[in-house]
């Protein structure tokens, strides 16, 4: 096992990894920018090294400075967290060249899956279903012709990146040329590579991802799916495990396909295979592989009981997986809300300042991953996500009620946060019923939450009771299709009228 691990990240994920190391008896090293001198991860680590000014390109993205800090500290491994350098093949290679273990996949696997076109080709050979699309190296005029052949709507995607950068949805031929140009410029700015490709845009789809773990001894397992369809501009906001849309047969099939996709590039460590799921015909298509730990990994941890970060460390140290596929039986339901320093009612404008008051929710089934403390400063230099609120329940209904309670308890003063936005979503009947898709937020106007009333609490109780009573995906799907029999019931109609009368639909 490692003696000392450097965490090449900041914020809540740095704290998360540092805690996992401490529980394994591993000494820890933090790196920080000038803006993060007093950050919680700096305080938590056994030692810390300044690596540059506030801008990430001069600090957290400087491979040379991070490797130098690892050498000076005597760290024998580096955990990249997520974001920053976590999916840079050159960083993993630099660690290897320096004789330092990279807690993640090989540079070759990162490169293979990091190029989205190459990734499509790799998984295609293993029989993984793909969305119809283009291949590598096409000029603008060839892309325009291909778009017309594939048929609109189509999605333009950056070959070298993710996170919503370099992506454009195009619905008619008149907009395709300008959209390709805009996507190329954004991709070049974000990834230093302007190559793009096309995929058929599957409308009213759900975003489903499968967590995998693979060791260096040839063992790969699936930890089940996560529902990630609540998104804004291709950025996930709420995740849950499992998904209400997936039945047991499809779940097992997607797990096997995800394992095949990972094995197609000899993948080792934790990774995530992302799919588009079309509930109309129960079909699914490979999107991409995230060759790192995911922001939403806690929901999988809660339903499986597996500490994914600790497994990452063990795998990187050369140990075999401690779990077999047949031993994994996810239980219960988990939901995660990403808490950001943004004003959700002012077009999600970033919010900066000093946290003057903080009260995090507690109680059964509530987990908070955060780097906040009273007096800490939230700057505009980095990603606005400042915390993750995760809850667990025996079923989805209990998880929703627990998340509503936890959000009501959460207090952060001094900055604007997305907490009111999440409260609105938890009150949404479309979310409660699980009938949403990736277009949910584009169809819904989110406004300041109305004060709680006996009526709204009664509505929540009615809907949640119905979900519990129906017990599962089949009933939810039946109601979502507009069933008018006993399954839907008069209570649902009453709840709908109550909602409509208050202007909440």
Structure report:
Strand 4, helix 4 and strand 5 form a beta-alpha-beta unit. Helix 4 packs antiparallel against helix 5. It is globular, with a radius of gyration of 23 Å. By secondary structure, the protein is α+β, with helices and mostly antiparallel strands. The chain is 37% helix and 23% strand. The C terminus is likely disordered. The protein is built from 18 helices and 22 strands. The longest helix is centred in the C-terminal third of the chain and has 17 residues. It folds into five domains: 100 residues, 3-Layer(aba) Sandwich (Rossmann fold), CATH 3.40.50.20; 137 residues, D-amino Acid Aminotransferase, Chain A, domain 1, CATH 3.30.470.20; 69 residues, Dna Ligase, domain 1 (2-Layer Sandwich), CATH 3.30.1490.20; 105 residues, D-amino Acid Aminotransferase, Chain A, domain 1; 48 residues, no CATH class.
Mean pLDDT: 90
Oligomer: single chain
How are the strands of the largest sheet arranged?
Answer: 13-12-9-10-11-14-21-19
The CATH homologous superfamily of the largest domain is named ATP-grasp fold, B domain
What is the CA-based Rg, rounded? 23 Å
Number of DSSP helices?
18
Low-confidence stretches: 473-505
Which structural class should the secondary elements be placed in?
A: alpha+beta
Total strand count, please?
Answer: 22
How much β-strand is present in the residues? Answer: 15-25%
Under the CATH scheme, the architecture of the largest domain is 2-Layer Sandwich
Query: How many domain units?
Result: 5
Which fold name fills CATH's third level, the topology of the largest domain?
D-amino Acid Aminotransferase, Chain A, domain 1
């Amino acid at each position: 096992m490692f003696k000392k691990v450097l965490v090449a990240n900041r914020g809540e994920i740095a704290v998360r990894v540092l805690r996992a190391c401490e529980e394994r008896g591993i000494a820890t090293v933090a790196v920080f920018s000038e803006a993060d001198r007093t950050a919680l991860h700096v305080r938590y680590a056994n030692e810390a090294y300044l690596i540059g000014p506030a801008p990430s390109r001069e600090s957290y993205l400087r491979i040379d400075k991070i490797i130098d800090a690892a050498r000076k500290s005597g760290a024998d491994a580096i955990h990249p967290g997520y974001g920053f350098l976590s999916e840079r093949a050159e960083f993993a290679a630099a660690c290897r060249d320096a004789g330092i273990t990279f807690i993640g996949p090989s540079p070759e696997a990162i490169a293979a899956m990091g190029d989205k076109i190459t990734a499509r080709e790799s998984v295609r050979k293993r029989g993984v279903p793909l969305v119809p699309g283009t291949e590598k190296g096409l000029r603008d005029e060839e892309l325009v012709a291909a778009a017309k052949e594939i048929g609109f709507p189509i999605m333009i995607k950056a070959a070298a990146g993710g996170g919503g950068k370099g992506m454009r949805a195009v619905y008619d031929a008149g907009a395709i040329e300008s959209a390709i140009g805009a996507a190329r410029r954004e991709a070049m700015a974000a990834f230093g590579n302007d190559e793009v490709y096309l995929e058929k845009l599957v409308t009213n789809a759900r975003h489903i991802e499968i967590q995998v773990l693979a060791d260096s001894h040839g063992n790969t397992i699936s930890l089940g799916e996560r529902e990630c369809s609540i998104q804004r501009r291709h950025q996930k906001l709420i995740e849950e495990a499992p998904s209400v849309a997936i039945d047991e047969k499809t779940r097992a099939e997607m797990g096997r396909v995800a394992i095949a996709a990972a094995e197609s590039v000899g993948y080792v460590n934790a990774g995530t295979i992302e799919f588009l799921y079309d509930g109309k015909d129960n079909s699914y298509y490979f999107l991409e592989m995230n060759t790192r730990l995911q922001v939403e990994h806690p929901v999988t941890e809660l339903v499986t009981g597996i500490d994914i970060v600790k497994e990452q460390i063990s795998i990187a140290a050369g140990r075999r997986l401690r779990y077999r596929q047949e031993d994994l039986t996810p239980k219960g339901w988990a939901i995660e809300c990403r808490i950001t320093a943004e004003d959700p009612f002012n077009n999600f404008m970033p919010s900066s300042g000093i946290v003057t008051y903080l009260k995090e929710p507690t109680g059964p089934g509530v987990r908070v991953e955060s780097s906040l403390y009273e007096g800490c400063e939230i700057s505009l230099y980095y990603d606005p996500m400042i915390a993750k609120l995760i809850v667990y329940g025996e079923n989805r209904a209990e998880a929703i009620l627990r998340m509503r309670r936890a959000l009501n308890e959460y207090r952060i003063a001094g900055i604007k946060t997305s907490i009111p936005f999440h409260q609105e979503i938890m009150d949404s009947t479309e979310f409660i019923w699980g009938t949403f898709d990736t277009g949910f937020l584009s169809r819904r106007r989110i406004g300041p939450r109305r004060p709680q009333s006996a009526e709204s609490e009664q509505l929540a109780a009615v809907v949640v009771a119905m979900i519990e009573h129906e017990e599962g995906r089949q009933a939810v799907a039946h109601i979502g299709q507009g069933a008018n029999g006993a399954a839907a019931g008069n209570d649902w109609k009453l709840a709908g009228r109550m909602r409509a009368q208050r202007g909440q639909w």
